[in-house]
Amino acid sequence: MNDSVYKWCCLAWLLQIIHDAIEQVKGIYVVIADHGNAEDMVKRDKARKAALDKEGKLQILASHTLKPVPMEVHGLANVAATVMNLHGYVVPSEYEPTLIEVVE
């Protein structure tokens, strides 16, 4: 199992623990992401080989890749209003609109 798969498995397990605890208290949680580089964690040369630094160590890729993220939100600007609505708050008019319909 490669490092990225292992990390995703750990994340899924931890999110399940959080989910179960939130369910017990009838709460709400939101998980969002706007970018990532899990599909490739090291820099690569033109031949797609892992790039090494002067000491022969892998160069870690800290920038964002161009791969799509497996979750879509209209924009991060909408997330604040959506989270506020989920928690029962009225969103200020100057915020971007919520992504959910609020029914009273």
Automatic annotation (TrEMBL):
Domain Metalloenzyme: 15-75
Keywords: Cytoplasm
InterPro entries, per database record: Alkaline_phosphatase_core_sf (IPR017850), Metalloenzyme (IPR006124), Pgm_bpd_ind (IPR005995)
Pfam families: Metalloenzyme
Compartments it resides in: Cytoplasm
Subunit structure, as described in the record: Monomer.
This protein's name: Metalloenzyme domain-containing protein
Species this chain originates from: Brassica cretica (Mustard)
